[in-house]
Amino acid sequence: MRASRSSSSRYTHVAIAFHWLLALALVGVFGVGLYMTGLSFSPAKLKLMNWHKWAGVTILILSFLRLLWRLTHRPPPLPAQVVEGMPLWQRAAHHGTHYLLYLLFFAVPLIGWAYSSAAGFPIVLFGVLPLPDLLSVDKALAESIKPWHGTAAFALAALVLLHVAAALKHHLIDRDGLLARIGLSR
């Protein structure tokens, strides 16, 4: 079964750009985060930590802009034939996953920023723009926040993998053309 490919069934070009920019940024920042945690303290690790922070702030800004766009530009509804073919639990998972993704787009970088602030490592965006600390320096608080950043990042990664798996299921098994909505599989 094929989904309609009219312009009303596709996301806007801006929404598609936000989707793929954020996807690439998330994969990159997660990879850098995993890699740097295994390094011993060194100038290379400090450089990667700064890049990781800059990417996190960039993701936070992109997420805010994406949410603003989403609130002012209604996304296209799922095609009727896709909805009819989805059990209720899949529709609930579809909506729940999207809400949780948006929540974690904000939570992960904000928790990281809070950790960095409490640990006494301010964020200087791109080495030139000092950002305000979210918390006062408190090493004990920093140590209690640190695991939350990692846990939230892994939860976000798991949701991204679930999102990709669902997209591949629609493309390879259902063959319903759903990926065309976000700029793939014309």
Summary tags:
186 residues, mainly alpha, Fumarate Reductase Cytochrome B subunit, two-stranded antiparallel sheet, 69% helix, 2% strand, disordered N terminus
Task: Tell me what you see in this structure.
The structure is a single chain. The chain is an all-alpha fold. The chain has one domain (7-182): Up-down Bundle (Fumarate Reductase Cytochrome B subunit), CATH 1.20.950. The chain is built from 5 helices and 2 strands, in the order H-H-H-H-E-E-H. It has a two-stranded antiparallel ribbon with strand order 1-2. Strand 1 and strand 2 form a beta hairpin. Helix 1 (13-37) packs antiparallel against helix 2, helix 2 crosses helix 4 (88-119) and helix 4 packs antiparallel against helix 5 (139-174). The longest helix has 36 residues, at 139-174. The protein starts with 12 loop residues before the first helix and ends in a 12-residue tail after the last helix. 17% of the residues are buried. The model is unreliable at 1-7 (pLDDT under 50).
Mean pLDDT metric = 92
Structural class determined from secondary elements: mainly alpha
List SSEs in N-to-C order: HHHHEEH
CATH 4th-level superfamily: Transmembrane di-heme cytochromes, Chain C
Terminus-to-terminus distance: 14 Å
- For this entry, what is the oligomeric state of its chains? single chain
Computed over alpha carbons, the radius of gyration is 19 Å
Strand elements, count: 2
Q: Which architecture per CATH? A: Up-down Bundle
What is the number of domains? 1
**CATH fold-type name:** Fumarate Reductase Cytochrome B subunit
